[in-house]
Amino acid sequence: MVFSSLWISCKKEAAPQAKPLEISVVKVLQQDVRLESEFTGQTFGQSDIQINPRVDGVIESLNFKEGSLVTKGQLLYTIDPLPYQAKLNEAEGSLAEVEARLAKTKSDYDMMIPLAKMNAVSQRELISAKAAYNASVASIKAASANLENAKIELGYCSIVAPISGLIGISKVRAGDYVRPGAASVLNTISDLGDVRVRFTLSEQEFLRIYREVNKKNSSLKGAGQSISLKLSDGSIYPQTGRISFADRQIDPTTGAITFEASFPNPDKLLRPGQYVKVGLVTDVRANTFLIPQRSVIEMQGIYQVYVLGDSSKVHMQIVKPGPAYKDGYVIEDGLKTGDKIAMGGTSLLKNGSVITPKLIEWQPGQQETAPTK
To answer: Are residues 162 and 74 part of one domain?
Structure first.
């Protein structure tokens, strides 16, 4: 008995059996996928109108608040009008002078006509009077044109908004001297009702999409009518846009073609000069396989996933991933309908491991949830 008790006390206790790992598992999705490509773009106003002076002079006043909305016809800048008022007064005086000369030459010519018929004056004198009268008529036209030009120049001293929109920071201040010319920009007004976004496609991508769109019953038809926009902070712009036009040529220096899309801008969130990401549907995959990106293991260019088999045992399967779709991958080869994929996320999971599968629901771009029972 003593020996028996000693033997029992020396016997080692059996180690407890390891509990299988609880691993999240998702079903391979099989659905149609519209794949978007992202292109870098820049925003422009619906109209971006530069304000240039049309006469030279000293800026007398700024009559708007920078960065505010202005309306068409609103006074923006005034240029010192005194020199142009003086020119107007001079033109009015010149016109009055030639009008008086016209009256005299007309009177002299009218008197010469009956006298010439009576041979009281020579034909030479009659022709001279007529020439003086015609010269006065021509002088009236020239003086009237000078007067009209003086009025126009005086009007240019008041610079008004050509469109309604958002005005920027003024490039001049009161007291600055300005002169006409393309390089002399006082300010810019942008109409932000709709915003234009310009982006480029490579020549190869353009040719591929063009051929696909022009196929009979192409799945890409109408893709240019619903374009997404991602802002610099990563947020998605709530409005969708549409392609307005493509440039007439491919830029030989970059090998790319420029497209322009139009986006509604009801809240004036988009401003000219922003850099954005344009999302354009460039491919449609029918009835394709989708799995979460984080379930794929990549080692030296080989992509593998853990597939759940019989008896809750997983085995490693080599797959061929295609394009990314939101937070998933399109799988072109290696999986079949009904496969279940282990999410992994632990170094304890090995090929042939027995797990406790926890089936979860997964949709691309949505948070994973447990399936409803």
So the answer is: yes
